[in-house]
Amino acid sequence: MLYFYANPIFNTLMNKIFPAVLMFASISCLGAEGDLKVAVIGGLDMSGVWSRVETSAESFLDFDITTVIAAPKERVVPAFMRGDVDLLLIHGGDETFALEAMGYASALRTWGYNEFIIAGPRNDPAGIAQANSGREALLKIQASNQSLILFRDAGSHQILRRLMDSADLVPSQLQLIPDKVEKPQQILAQAASDQAYVIVGHLPVAFGRMQSDGIDVLLQGDPSMRRAYVIVTPGPQHPANLVARSNAEKLAEYLISEEGQKALEEPGPDEGMSWIFPRRDASGLLQFPKAQTPRRRVSGNQ
């Protein structure tokens, strides 16, 4: 309790606003101290995209950024929950929704998108290399009665479901075969063995994490075959301190700003192409099959 002089109204007012003033002052004075600890999903680090964006962000902001871990979701999500890191970049999905619902994360923001492709036998028996979209490629696979692997990856399932909906297909109309490999990275080896097609992320194929002789990328560049990365910042249950929360918010705002999005889509030095697509390119995910017109009910008196 603070006592300044005998005026009770003044005392009441100061007791209410003084803690807020102290908090603001501490953030203003300390916000630039220390670094911000970040975790990213492995593909962002593997592609070189995150290191480029990180460098750009540090030149724009007033603090250093340290990437503590770049790994699969099974490692980065627990690291965020423990407070080992104060900002997380990961695919949006059940895990990120749960973090927000449980109070570990604040409101999620979409940062960018990665692309999925269709790989298959080099001789391409379904002829999908000539297709103009994933929808058309799926219809060609169905029409030629070729096999498509039902890959365990959550993103691949999501893209397959989206393509089936757009093509007005159901699973029984496709020659779907189960994923039989021990590790996800071996899925192209199964595609070669079974002479089958498979939907996979472009990044692990392009950077050698998934390889197999005789299997090529046959369809790419479809905006409807993308999956969102989200920015996860501390919620009320996260152990981050005030400075870390402030810096995480500053980085999140930068990442979705015009400057941050420009850094995101710069082509890489090796491949000469963008691997992560900016927020504004999300329209391809808002394509829905035409809904059937409901039949009009006719009453018995008509």
Overview of this protein structure:
- By secondary structure, the protein is α/β, with parallel strands linked by helices.
- The protein has two domains: 14-106 and 233-279, D-Maltodextrin-Binding Protein, domain 2, CATH 3.40.190.10; 115-219, Periplasmic binding protein-like II (D-Maltodextrin-Binding Protein, domain 2).
- The chain is 39% helix and 20% strand.
- The chain contains eleven helices and ten strands.
- The protein has helices at 8-30, 42-46, 49-60, 73-82, 94-101, 134-143, 154-167, 187-194, 202-206, 242-256, 258-264; strands at residues 35-41, 64-71, 87-91, 109-121, 147-150, 175-178, 198-201, 215-219, 226-232, 276-278.
- Strands 1, 2, 3, 4, 7, 8, 9 and 10 form an eight-stranded mixed β-sheet that branches. Strands 5-6 form a two-stranded parallel ribbon.
- Helix 6 (134-143) crosses helix 7.
- It is elongated, with a radius of gyration of 25 Å.
Brief descriptors of the model:
eight-stranded mixed sheet; about 300 residues; alpha/beta; D-Maltodextrin-Binding Protein, domain 2; 10 strands
Fold blueprint:
Blueprint: H1 8-30, E1 35-41, H2 42-46, H3 49-60, E2 64-71, H4 73-82, E3 87-91, H5 94-101, E4 109-121, H6 134-143, E5 147-150, H7 154-167, E6 175-178, H8 187-194, E7 198-201, H9 202-206, E8 215-219, E9 226-232, H10 242-256, H11 258-264, E10 276-278
Parallel strand pairs: 1-2, 1-3, 5-6
Antiparallel strand pairs: 3-9, 4-7, 4-8, 4-9, 4-10
Helix pairs in contact: 6-7
